[in-house]
Design goal:
By secondary structure, the protein is α+β, with helices and mostly antiparallel strands. Helices cover 59% and strands 14% of the residues. Strand 2 and strand 3 form a beta hairpin. The protein is elongated, with a radius of gyration of 19 Å.
């Protein structure tokens, strides 16, 4: 388990910013200590939260985004398999469906 320090928080912020998200600290009553606006690529964290809560919120957001990206990639592979020639189609499609299970 990583220590929740200012440097660790900065690294989490940088990771999100590298992936196109803006990280802001605002006053608010967020249920989980944060608000994620995916359509605007904006992450808002309660500015009154403790360091541990801020880091936990950013880690949770990163996990959510990475799992969504993984699912999206699997769907793209499945769609590509559906577009393959008839011979390969069935075996590739079955393989992709098994990955999703």
């Amino acid at each position: 388990m990583a220590k929740f320090t200012t440097q660790y928080l900065k690294k989490l912020e940088e990771y999100l910013e590298e992936n196109g998200f803006e990280v802001r600290y605002e006053k608010g009553n967020f249920k989980n200590g944060y608000c994620l606006l995916e359509s605007k690529k904006l992450v808002m964290v309660n500015k009154f939260s403790a360091m541990e809560t801020r880091c936990s919120a950013l880690l949770e957001i990163i996990n959510i985004l990475e799992s969504q990206q993984k699912i999206s990639m699997q769907r793209q592979e499945l769609f590509a398999a559906m577009q393959s020639p008839e011979q390969e189609k069935e075996s590739v499609l079955n393989e992709k469906i098994n990955k999703l299970s």
